[in-house]
Specification:
The protein is of the alpha+beta class. The model is unreliable at 1-14 and 124-132 (pLDDT under 50). Strand 9 and strand 10 (109-113) form a beta hairpin. Among the domains are: 1-33, no CATH class; 38-119, Sandwich (Immunoglobulin-like), CATH 2.60.40. The chain is built from 1 helix and 11 strands. The chain is flat, with a radius of gyration of 34 Å.
């Protein structure tokens, strides 16, 4: 005879058998395995002008928390930190393959990288002396503000030009045009 204890885990369950005195020992039931750690690296933006900043982000799936991050290789001007996201301002024009190695709490490690394009201000199409070029996010924000203003002004015009209809008082049921009059003998 054994005393069986069930312990709930995140990924399933673990069965532990504790033998009583003089009982046969049952073989241990294996712990369900966690899927292997997966890592994707994203650079936002992935193409930028020299002097601008990109955010490198490690996207994780599976593995066992807690995680450690080692970012390498990085473009000149960027420094590694033990973080899942890293601000990076390259100081040299070129094409780079910034990567990260992630290790989870069980010692499982995975590495991945992305491509980063760093252009000079001339290659990006800005004129010298014109200041810093606007990013795509700036244009997106300006476009959304413009669309929002157009919608708001259209709604305002519709509200101001709409004729107000006076609400008619309800018709008593006996006078409603769709109710046939009662016959004298039904009263």
């Amino acid at each position: 005879m054994t005393l069986t204890i069930l312990v709930a885990l995140l990924a399933g369950g673990l069965r532990v058998s504790i033998p009583r005195a003089g009982a046969d020992v049952e073989p241990a039931v294996p712990i369900p395995s966690v899927p292997p750690l997966r890592v994707e690296v994203v650079a936002s933006p992935s193409a930028l002008t020299l002097g601008n900043t990109t955010v490198l982000t490690a996207l994780l799936a599976y593995g066992t928390p807690w995680y450690s991050f080692v970012w390498a290789p990085l473009p000149p001007g960027c420094a590694t930190k033990n973080l899942s996201s890293l601000n990076c301002t390259p100081t040299t024009v070129g094409t780079y393959q910034p990567g990260v190695t992630v290790t989870d709490s069980t010692g499982q490690s995975r590495a991945n990288a992305t491509t980063l394009f760093v252009n000079s201000s001339q290659a990006a199409g800005s004129k010298s002396g014109s200041g810093s070029p606007l990013s795509g996010a700036t244009y997106l924000f300006a476009g959304l503000v413009g669309i929002g203003a157009a919608i708001a002004s259209t709604l305002l015009i519709l509200l101001l030009t709409r004729r107000r209809r006076r609400r008619q008082p309800p018709i008593p049921f006996s006078q409603h045009p769709y109710v046939p009059p009662l016959a004298p003998d039904d009263r």
